[in-house]
Amino acid sequence: MIWRALFSRFTVADCWYNEIMAPMDLLTEARRLPVTERLALIDQLIESVESDATEPLSSEMVSELERRHQAYQAQPDEVEPWEVVRERIRGSLNAARDRRPA
C-alpha cells in the first residue's frame, strides 16, 4: 500500500501526519514513489476529498470533470505542467491588473 511506503517508520497511533512531516516533506516523499503508486495515491486523495465534501458536485461540475478526463485520456501528451499553467494565469492576472485604471 502507498501509505505504507510513505509512513513505514510510523504508525497512526504515533501522531498525525503534520506532526510527522510538513506538507512539503510529505510531497517530497510522495514524489519518490514510482509513477503507478503516485497515481494510486492521487486516486486515494481524490476519494478522500470526495468523501469529506459537504456539498455534492453539481451535474455541470461532474460533466466538466468527465470531459477533462476524456480529453486527457485521448491526448495524455498534451498536458501542461502546473508551473507553466500557473505562470500563464499569473501573467493574465498581472495584465488585467495593469489595465485597471488607477
Topology overview:
Blueprint: H1 2-6, H2 17-20, H3 23-31, H4 35-52, H5 59-74, H6 82-99
List keywords for this structure.
2 domains, extended, single chain, 102 residues
Can you put this structure into words, describing what you see?
- This protein is mainly alpha-helical.
- It has 2 domains: about 55 residues, no CATH class; about 50 residues, no CATH class.
- The chain contains 6 helices and no strands.
- The radius of gyration is 19 Å and the shape is extended.
How would you concisely characterize the structure shown here?
The chain is mainly α.
Helix/strand order, N-terminal first: HHHHHH
Which regions are unreliable across 5 or more consecutive residues at pLDDT < 50?
6-18
Write down how many β-strands occur, each being a DSSP E stretch of 2 or more residues. 0
Shape type: extended
Note the quaternary state here. Answer: single chain
